[in-house]
Amino acid sequence: MISNRFSNDKNETIKLNKLQKKTKKTIENKIKKGNYKFILTKCPICKSFNFEKLSEKDRYGLFMPVVICKKCGLVQTNPHMTEDSYSNFYQKEYRDLYNPTNSINNLFEDQYQRGKKIFEYLGLKEFKNKNVLEIGCGAGGILKAFKEKGLTIKGFDLDKRYLQFGIKKGLNLNYGKLDDILEKNYAPDIIIYSHVLEHVLDPIKELKKIQKLMHKETLLYIEVPGLKNIASAYNKDFLQYLQNAHTYHFTKQTLKNCANSSGLTQIKSDECIRSIFKKGKKESQAMNDYRLTKKYLLTLESKIIIPLNSLEVEMLAAMIKNKIKKIKNFF
Question: Apex CA 212: angle with CA 154 and CA 90, to 5°?
Fold first, then answer.
């Protein structure tokens, strides 16, 4: 493990409110009773089981075994919950654990501001008469930013409450997942996949499906939490970055490896992570990011200041008091 802080002691790293604590207990009981099952899978990029353990829990103190693949460097939750378990979690506990007090209106505004940044990052010189598709659009705030620029928008999501919020704002949002979109014979000019890929169980399979929607010039924008961006977020703490809903934890390089394995070519990327891809040729050789990623995480951990608990404070105070007494006796 990175350090003893990452052991499965059930202690949270962030402050939880009453609803979050209640939700956490519900999830723990489901894991204990076997309602939430876990499965060990091979690395999706290099197909190996050559893993090194990094953590046993997430920021909420929930069981979450995180490993790094020594063959390619992809950090992943493994074993991870089964597809049925994740589905149940998203329906029953996800919102209460992750956004217990945040209103849809606030989330929509956050999406809208992100949408404006995505539009700028894409650097589109010509965008009139272009159409954009967002998979996992939520309430559609990102798409609102594109609609204001004159693009034709369409979004898909599985949260009916969020979809209705966006529909009332005049956005073209639809209930459905990627497989439903493939049936519509639809080829957008831009596809937005923002904070979705880290949740899927087979990212390469997912990216191959997405390519069926892409024509030669389609731009695929992928945004995920950047593992090597933790120094600029999450209080510079890897443990606060970890969250049980995320199956994969990408760096710029491992996302590129993943996309290349599916037949996509990276056009632009950073460690935030924001990346743009086009259809390309599948690359057989992936760059191993294991050494650099491990070094980055260990360096982060070396800078963490861990507060003392009450017992440690008492022991330290007693030691100092004893030292002072010896110094006084010496003089």
Answer: 60
Q: Are residues 41 and 167 in the same domain?
A: no
Average pLDDT in the chain: 92
Residue 248 falls inside a structural domain: yes
Q: Are residues 95 and 133 in the same domain?
A: no
Q: How far apart are CA 55 and CA 8, in angstroms?
A: 8
pLDDT in the model for residue 281: 76
Q: What is the DSSP letter of 194?
A: E
d(CA 50, CA 290): 11
Residue carrying structure tokens 């103190």:
61
For residues 182 and 138, state if they share a domain: yes
Q: Is 328 part of any domain?
A: no
Kindly report, residue by residue over 203-256, the tens digit of the pLDDT: 999 999 999 999 999 999 999 999 999 999 999 999 999 999 999 999 999 999
pTM equals: 0.89
- Core vs surface per residue 209-235: b (16+ CB within 10 A) or e: bbbebbeeebbbbbbbbbbbbbeeebe
Examine the domain organization and report whether 146 and 241 are in the same domain.
yes
Q: Would you call the peptide bond into 65 cis, given omega within 30 degrees of 0 as the criterion? A: no
Q: Between 153 and 322, where is the model more confident? A: 153
The token pair that represents 279 in the structure block:
């259809």
94 and 233 share one domain: no
**C-alpha closest to that of 195 among 256, 250, 239:** 250
pLDDT for 310: 53
Closest CA to 224 of 190, 259, 260, 252: 252
pLDDT tier, 327 (very low <50, low <70, confident <90, very high otherwise): low
